[in-house]
């Protein structure tokens, strides 16, 4: 559970930092740049995250084991999960924000634990006690309260719904597939992370950016004149790598449904980092404070099996 909580905390930190990068001049200079920013930033982000993971695995002498894991059935399914959770899930997230507004997009990103828990129940036989379902629903309502805005700007309802479903099912399916793959002792969580980030970066770079005609803009970011943009994304990628590593370890040790309930607490931790890092106290409204406490507390308890804890104490 500690790994799951740490995954949520570090992902919130990553979210705030990548938000700083998306607000920098290269990404807001033109209408095309604004459109390409989520896709280009995600490609650069996952590329450097794969590099951080390679440094971690290289220092531990695991790169050969990563290649061996990729050649196993479980490793190949990790690569498939990377496509489902990365390009498919993230593209759906971008679509939901673009067509239905940021608040709905945030809710979409937070509904994946419910989808994942249902899939884990049927495919992994993970038990979900009734009180954990209730706490998970309350957690998601808390996330909705954090992101709710009465001024929704819905430009295309059906495309927005399509994006929401892609996001929720993409991230939910990814967690369940990863949990199944990591049951193989040869496919450890750090190997799965390396495969996931490398696959995601390759799909973005080889498939999505050429389709969106975004390589010219991407190359211009590395040509110079962008100030601290690339270093900021590299820092965000570092915390994302730590978050994924903790998240995958939580999936491997306590199961997909519990790990997802803990990971989604990032929505509340992001409020904390917004105040600490950006010095933005305007987010400290009674609603955000109450909803943040609900998300953190209920998210942790939604991952706790009280019968199991009591039996261990006895």
Could you explain how this protein is built, in words?
Helix 1 runs antiparallel to helix 12 (about 230-255), helix 5 (about 75-100) runs antiparallel to helix 9 and helix 5 (about 75-100) packs across helix 10. The chain is built from 16 helices and no strands. The two termini are about 20 Å apart. It is mainly α. About 80% of the residues lie in helices and about 0% in strands.
What is this entry, summarized?
The chain has 314 residues and is mostly helical. The protein has 16 helices and no strands.
Question: Could you name the key traits of this structure?
Answer:
314 residues, mainly alpha, 16 helices, 82% helix
Q: What gyration radius follows from the Cα positions, in whole Å? A: 19 Å
Total beta strand runs = 0
Mean pLDDT: 83
What series of H and E elements makes up the topology?
A: HHHHHHHHHHHHHHHH
Strand content is under 5%
Q: Provide the low-confidence segments as ranges.
A: none
Share of helical residues: over 70%
Main sheet attributes: strand count, strand direction, barrel closure: none
Q: N-to-C terminal Cα separation, in Å? A: 20 Å
Which structural class should the secondary elements be placed in?
mainly alpha
The DSSP helix count reads: 16
Global morphology:
globular
């Amino acid at each position: 559970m500690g790994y799951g909580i740490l995954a949520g905390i570090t992902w919130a930190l990553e979210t705030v930092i990548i938000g700083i990068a998306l607000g920098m001049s290269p990404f807001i200079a033109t209408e095309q740049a604004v459109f390409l920013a989520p896709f280009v930033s995600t490609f650069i982000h996952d590329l450097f995250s794969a590099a951080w993971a390679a440094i971690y695995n290289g220092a531990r002498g695991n790169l050969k084991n990563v290649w061996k894991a990729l050649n196993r059935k479980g490793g190949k399914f990790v690569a498939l999960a990377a496509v489902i959770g990365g390009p498919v899930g993230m593209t759906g997230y971008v679509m939901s924000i673009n067509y239905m507004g940021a608040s709905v997009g945030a809710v979409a990103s937070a509904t994946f634990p419910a989808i994942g828990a249902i899939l884990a129940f049927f495919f992994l036989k993970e038990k979900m006690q009734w009180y954990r379902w209730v706490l998970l629903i309350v957690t998601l309502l808390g996330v909705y309260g954090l992101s709710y805005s009465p001024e929704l700007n819905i430009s295309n309802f059906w495309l927005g719904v399509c994006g929401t479903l892609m996001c929720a099912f993409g991230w939910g399916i990814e967690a369940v597939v990863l949990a199944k793959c990591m049951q193989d002792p040869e496919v450890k969580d750090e190997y799965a992370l390396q495969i996931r980030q490398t696959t995601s970066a390759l799909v973005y770079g080889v498939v999505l950016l050429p389709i969106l005609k975004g390589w010219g803009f991407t190359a211009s970011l590395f040509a110079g004149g962008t100030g601290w943009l690339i270093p900021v994304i590299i820092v965000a990628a570092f915390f994302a790598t730590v978050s994924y590593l903790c998240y995958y370890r939580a999936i491997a040790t306590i199961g997909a449904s519990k790990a997802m309930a803990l990971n989604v607490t990032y929505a509340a931790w992001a409020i904390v980092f917004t105040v600490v890092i950006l010095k933005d106290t305007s987010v400290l409204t009674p609603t955000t404070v109450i909803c943040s406490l609900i998300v953190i507390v209920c998210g942790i308890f939604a991952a706790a099996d009280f019968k199991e804890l009591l039996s261990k104490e006895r």
